[in-house]
Amino acid sequence: MADVKYYMENAHIIRDGLTKAGFTVYGATNSPYAWVQTPNGMKSWDFFDLLLEKAHVVTTPGSGFGPHGEGYLRLTAFGTKENTIEAVNRIANLNLFK
């Protein structure tokens, strides 16, 4: 049970941090996954590439989940708290909404 609580705390860190940075985030309330809408209509693979190159954060492009996943990325909370905070900070510091 402690593992579930730990990863759900990570999910809340993702959801809260990226929402504060201006992203639209779905999920991460009752599951360890967050779905993040790509900014400015960007394709999911393009946003994946941007985050990999600029923030050094690996995500999962939503298009891999079918046509309704396009325009989103899926982030997982199955990491350490420290790495989760670091990844959220790196994404937020890209200032994509300013």
Please outline the helices and strands.
Elements: H1 2-20, E1 25-27, E2 33-37, H2 44-55, E3 60-61, E4 72-76, H3 81-92
Antiparallel strand pairs: 1-2, 2-4, 3-4
Describe this protein's structure:
- There is one protein chain.
- With 98 residues, the protein is α+β, with helices and mostly antiparallel strands.
- It has 3 helices and 4 strands; from the N terminus they run αββαββα.
- It has helices at residues 2-20, 44-55, 81-92, and strands at 25-27, 33-37, 60-61, 72-76.
- It has a 4-stranded antiparallel beta sheet with strand order 1-2-4-3.
- A hairpin with a 5-residue loop joins strand 1 and strand 2.
- Helix 1 runs parallel beside helix 3.
- The radius of gyration is 13 Å and the shape is globular.
- The mean pLDDT is 95.
State the main characteristics:
alpha+beta; 98 residues; 3 helices
Q: How does the overall form come out from the CA principal axes?
A: globular
The parts where pLDDT drops under 50 for at least 5 residues are none
Mean model confidence by pLDDT? 95
The portion of residues assigned to helices is: 40-55%
- Give the strand line-up of the largest sheet: 1-2-4-3
What is the distance, rounded to the nearest whole angstrom, between the alpha carbons of the first and last residues?
40 Å
Order of helices and strands: HEEHEEH
Major beta sheet summary: 4 strands, antiparallel
Count of DSSP helices?
Answer: 3
Beta-strand fraction estimate: 15-25%
| Main structural class | alpha+beta
What radius of gyration results from the CA coordinates? 13 Å
Number of strands: 4
Question: What is the subunit organization of this protein?
Answer: single chain
